[in-house]
Amino acid sequence: MTDVEVVDVGTRACLVEVDDAVAAASLAAWVRGAGLAVEEVVPAARTVLLDGVDPAAVRALLPGWSAERAAVPGPLVSVAVRYSGPDLERVAGHWGCTVEEVVELHTSLEFTSTFCGFAPGFAYLAGLPADRAVPRLETPRARVAPGSVALADTWCGVYPTASPGGWLLLGTTDADLWDVGRAEPALLAPGTRVRFEARR
After folding, report:
1. Fewer CB within 10 Å: C terminus or N terminus of the chain?
2. CB 66 within 8 Å of CB 2
3. pTM
4. Is residue 1 within 8 Å of 64, Cβ to Cβ?
Protein backbone atom coordinates (compact mmCIF):
# COMPACT_ATOMS: atom_id res chain seq x y z
CA MET A 1 0.00 0.00 0.00
CA THR A 2 1.16 3.51 -0.73
CA ASP A 3 1.81 5.54 2.43
CA VAL A 4 -1.27 7.53 3.39
CA GLU A 5 -2.29 9.48 6.45
CA VAL A 6 -5.70 8.92 8.01
CA VAL A 7 -6.96 11.78 10.18
CA ASP A 8 -10.03 11.16 12.33
CA VAL A 9 -12.80 13.74 11.96
CA GLY A 10 -14.92 12.88 14.97
CA THR A 11 -16.06 9.30 15.49
CA ARG A 12 -17.87 8.78 12.18
CA ALA A 13 -15.63 10.36 9.55
CA CYS A 14 -12.01 10.60 8.52
CA LEU A 15 -9.80 12.42 6.05
CA VAL A 16 -7.34 10.32 4.04
CA GLU A 17 -4.33 12.34 2.86
CA VAL A 18 -2.62 11.20 -0.36
CA ASP A 19 0.02 12.56 -2.74
CA ASP A 20 -2.05 14.23 -5.45
CA ALA A 21 -5.41 14.54 -7.20
CA VAL A 22 -4.86 11.43 -9.32
CA ALA A 23 -4.27 9.33 -6.20
CA ALA A 24 -7.30 10.92 -4.52
CA ALA A 25 -9.53 10.08 -7.49
CA SER A 26 -8.18 6.52 -7.57
CA LEU A 27 -8.77 6.05 -3.85
CA ALA A 28 -12.28 7.51 -3.99
CA ALA A 29 -13.26 5.20 -6.86
CA TRP A 30 -11.75 2.21 -5.07
CA VAL A 31 -13.55 2.95 -1.80
CA ARG A 32 -16.89 3.24 -3.62
CA GLY A 33 -16.40 -0.23 -5.06
CA ALA A 34 -14.85 -1.89 -2.01
CA GLY A 35 -18.09 -2.45 -0.11
CA LEU A 36 -17.18 -0.15 2.77
CA ALA A 37 -20.24 1.14 4.65
CA VAL A 38 -19.74 4.86 4.02
CA GLU A 39 -22.33 7.59 3.51
CA GLU A 40 -20.27 9.98 1.42
CA VAL A 41 -16.94 9.92 -0.43
CA VAL A 42 -15.55 13.38 -1.26
CA PRO A 43 -12.23 13.53 -3.19
CA ALA A 44 -10.23 16.75 -3.33
CA ALA A 45 -6.78 17.78 -4.59
CA ARG A 46 -4.83 15.68 -2.07
CA THR A 47 -7.43 14.25 0.27
CA VAL A 48 -10.51 12.04 0.38
CA LEU A 49 -13.14 12.73 3.03
CA LEU A 50 -15.06 9.63 4.11
CA ASP A 51 -18.20 10.57 6.02
CA GLY A 52 -20.44 8.25 8.01
CA VAL A 53 -17.81 5.58 8.50
CA ASP A 54 -15.77 4.08 11.32
CA PRO A 55 -12.17 5.35 10.88
CA ALA A 56 -10.88 2.02 12.19
CA ALA A 57 -12.65 0.24 9.32
CA VAL A 58 -10.96 2.59 6.86
CA ARG A 59 -7.53 1.86 8.33
CA ALA A 60 -8.20 -1.87 8.09
CA LEU A 61 -9.28 -1.59 4.44
CA LEU A 62 -6.55 0.71 3.11
CA PRO A 63 -3.78 -1.94 2.79
CA GLY A 64 -5.70 -3.28 -0.21
CA TRP A 65 -5.30 -0.03 -2.15
CA SER A 66 -2.29 1.49 -3.90
CA ALA A 67 -1.89 4.76 -5.79
CA GLU A 68 -0.87 2.76 -8.87
CA ARG A 69 -4.35 1.23 -9.04
CA ALA A 70 -6.07 2.93 -11.96
CA ALA A 71 -9.59 4.16 -11.40
CA VAL A 72 -12.27 2.48 -13.50
CA PRO A 73 -12.92 4.78 -16.49
CA GLY A 74 -16.06 6.85 -16.00
CA PRO A 75 -18.59 7.95 -18.62
CA LEU A 76 -17.40 10.17 -21.47
CA VAL A 77 -19.03 13.58 -21.88
CA SER A 78 -18.45 15.84 -24.89
CA VAL A 79 -18.60 19.58 -24.26
CA ALA A 80 -19.04 21.91 -27.24
CA VAL A 81 -17.05 25.14 -26.88
CA ARG A 82 -16.99 28.45 -28.73
CA TYR A 83 -13.29 29.29 -28.56
CA SER A 84 -13.52 33.07 -28.34
CA GLY A 85 -12.31 33.70 -24.79
CA PRO A 86 -10.40 36.86 -23.85
CA ASP A 87 -7.31 34.92 -22.75
CA LEU A 88 -6.73 32.78 -25.85
CA GLU A 89 -3.85 34.95 -27.03
CA ARG A 90 -2.37 35.02 -23.53
CA VAL A 91 -2.37 31.21 -23.42
CA ALA A 92 -0.93 31.04 -26.95
CA GLY A 93 1.87 33.39 -25.91
CA HIS A 94 2.60 31.35 -22.82
CA TRP A 95 2.74 28.15 -24.89
CA GLY A 96 4.65 29.74 -27.75
CA CYS A 97 2.08 28.80 -30.37
CA THR A 98 -0.87 30.20 -32.30
CA VAL A 99 -4.44 30.55 -31.07
CA GLU A 100 -5.45 27.84 -33.53
CA GLU A 101 -2.88 25.50 -31.98
CA VAL A 102 -4.25 26.22 -28.50
CA VAL A 103 -7.69 25.09 -29.68
CA GLU A 104 -6.21 22.08 -31.45
CA LEU A 105 -4.36 20.94 -28.32
CA HIS A 106 -7.27 21.56 -25.98
CA THR A 107 -9.67 19.57 -28.14
CA SER A 108 -7.15 16.73 -28.58
CA LEU A 109 -6.95 15.95 -24.85
CA GLU A 110 -9.13 13.75 -22.70
CA PHE A 111 -9.66 15.25 -19.27
CA THR A 112 -10.90 13.53 -16.13
CA SER A 113 -12.99 15.12 -13.40
CA THR A 114 -11.02 14.47 -10.23
CA PHE A 115 -13.16 16.39 -7.76
CA CYS A 116 -15.77 19.12 -7.55
CA GLY A 117 -15.66 22.30 -5.51
CA PHE A 118 -15.62 26.11 -5.54
CA ALA A 119 -19.24 26.19 -6.77
CA PRO A 120 -21.93 23.52 -7.34
CA GLY A 121 -21.08 21.77 -10.60
CA PHE A 122 -17.54 23.13 -10.90
CA ALA A 123 -15.27 20.18 -11.69
CA TYR A 124 -11.48 20.24 -11.49
CA LEU A 125 -10.44 18.50 -14.69
CA ALA A 126 -7.01 16.84 -14.83
CA GLY A 127 -5.29 16.07 -18.11
CA LEU A 128 -3.38 19.17 -19.17
CA PRO A 129 0.32 18.23 -19.54
CA ALA A 130 2.67 19.74 -16.96
CA ASP A 131 4.56 21.63 -19.66
CA ARG A 132 1.30 23.40 -20.60
CA ALA A 133 0.59 24.73 -17.11
CA VAL A 134 -0.54 28.37 -17.12
CA PRO A 135 -0.58 30.97 -14.34
CA ARG A 136 -3.73 32.49 -12.91
CA LEU A 137 -4.47 36.16 -13.48
CA GLU A 138 -2.66 38.43 -11.03
CA THR A 139 -5.95 40.25 -10.43
CA PRO A 140 -9.05 38.01 -10.68
CA ARG A 141 -12.01 39.21 -12.71
CA ALA A 142 -14.96 40.46 -10.69
CA ARG A 143 -17.31 38.41 -12.87
CA VAL A 144 -16.76 35.39 -15.09
CA ALA A 145 -19.72 34.43 -17.27
CA PRO A 146 -21.42 31.07 -16.71
CA GLY A 147 -20.24 28.41 -19.12
CA SER A 148 -16.73 29.87 -19.35
CA VAL A 149 -14.09 27.21 -20.11
CA ALA A 150 -10.84 28.04 -18.37
CA LEU A 151 -7.33 26.94 -17.44
CA ALA A 152 -5.20 27.47 -14.34
CA ASP A 153 -1.94 25.68 -13.59
CA THR A 154 -2.57 22.17 -15.02
CA TRP A 155 -6.31 22.29 -14.32
CA CYS A 156 -9.20 22.87 -16.70
CA GLY A 157 -12.63 23.90 -15.48
CA VAL A 158 -16.00 25.22 -16.61
CA TYR A 159 -17.74 27.89 -14.55
CA PRO A 160 -21.33 26.69 -13.90
CA THR A 161 -22.57 30.10 -12.76
CA ALA A 162 -21.39 33.70 -12.89
CA SER A 163 -18.72 34.30 -10.25
CA PRO A 164 -15.39 36.02 -9.65
CA GLY A 165 -12.44 34.10 -11.04
CA GLY A 166 -8.79 34.29 -11.95
CA TRP A 167 -8.49 31.42 -14.44
CA LEU A 168 -7.58 32.06 -18.07
CA LEU A 169 -10.67 31.96 -20.28
CA LEU A 170 -10.57 29.98 -23.53
CA GLY A 171 -14.23 30.13 -24.53
CA THR A 172 -17.80 29.34 -23.52
CA THR A 173 -20.22 26.41 -23.60
CA ASP A 174 -23.99 26.05 -23.29
CA ALA A 175 -23.66 22.75 -21.42
CA ASP A 176 -25.91 22.47 -18.36
CA LEU A 177 -23.32 21.78 -15.68
CA TRP A 178 -25.60 21.64 -12.64
CA ASP A 179 -29.19 20.44 -12.59
CA VAL A 180 -30.79 19.30 -9.33
CA GLY A 181 -33.47 17.53 -11.38
CA ARG A 182 -30.92 14.91 -12.53
CA ALA A 183 -30.07 11.81 -10.52
CA GLU A 184 -26.48 13.17 -10.49
CA PRO A 185 -26.82 16.96 -10.52
CA ALA A 186 -23.19 17.56 -11.63
CA LEU A 187 -22.70 16.92 -15.35
CA LEU A 188 -18.98 16.44 -14.75
CA ALA A 189 -19.09 14.40 -11.56
CA PRO A 190 -15.81 12.93 -10.27
CA GLY A 191 -14.59 10.15 -12.55
CA THR A 192 -16.25 11.57 -15.66
CA ARG A 193 -14.06 11.72 -18.75
CA VAL A 194 -14.38 14.95 -20.72
CA ARG A 195 -13.59 15.88 -24.32
CA PHE A 196 -13.98 19.42 -25.64
CA GLU A 197 -15.19 20.05 -29.18
CA ALA A 198 -14.86 23.29 -31.11
CA ARG A 199 -18.07 24.81 -32.41
CA ARG A 200 -18.90 28.11 -34.09
Report:
1. C
2. yes
3. 0.79
4. yes
